[in-house]
Design brief:
- By secondary structure, this protein is of the alpha/beta class.
- It has 11 helices and 10 strands.
- The protein has 2 domains: 64 residues; 187 residues, Rossmann fold.
Length: 279
Amino acid sequence: MKTDQILRAATARLKAAGVETPARDARRLMAHALEMSPDRLTVGLPDKLTPSVEKRFDAAIKAREARQPVSQIVGWREFYGRRFKVTPDVLDPRPDTETLIDWVLRYPFQNILDLGTGSGCILLTLLVERPDVRGVGIDVSEAAIDVALANAADLGVSKRAFFDTSDWLEDVSGRFDIITANPPYISAGEMTDLAPEVRDHEPHLALCPGGDGLDAYRAIAKRVARHLTPAGPLFVEIGATQAAAVTEIFRNADLEVAPPRQDLNGHDRVIMARLRYRA
């Protein structure tokens, strides 16, 4: 079979498997099999595949038919214009989280703490954008920290990025100009409604804290005052329907809370809170 025929057949297989974007995914996996940048596939697609490339492409398509995320198959995901290594041990970076990055970059800061750092996409993006900043990434998962360390090396910020294990703020010391977090916020009842790519292949620890999905915010609110500088803001990503609940949690912890920022789809996505000013 010619390459374009193989590509069409793969697209049909993915469509039959329920993949939402079969043609796009098939092309990205073809680029992966050819060890080629996806944006060069149009001009660089060979007429026929070598046996080794065809075998690699078929294995990738089989994995995608099983609804494994494309990012895990190819090993990376683009976030804020940069590539981040992705494994089943970390949450797949999402465009919605770029809303948090945009908001943080409006503020001056010299050091930053990122809670539940995962792949490190938030912390490392901010370090690349601000070359004079140092930061700490915290995660309860040592496997996730290994991924973040690899991404820090790839992005050239290893000397300014430090990582450690902690259950949120329990084992953290010091104060920071900025604290960020993209905590697990999916409730237990919502897990069964997730797409197979998320439900079956991403770490549940990074998706669902159990119960109503708000326990991580409660844990952060309980200790955050002792780790923020007096004027330092806390930025957290939230679920699209959680703005009121998270705002209440933070206000009950004596924090001042700004109105939420919306993502590109118009959903509430990020909340910023500060220590309450006392005259």
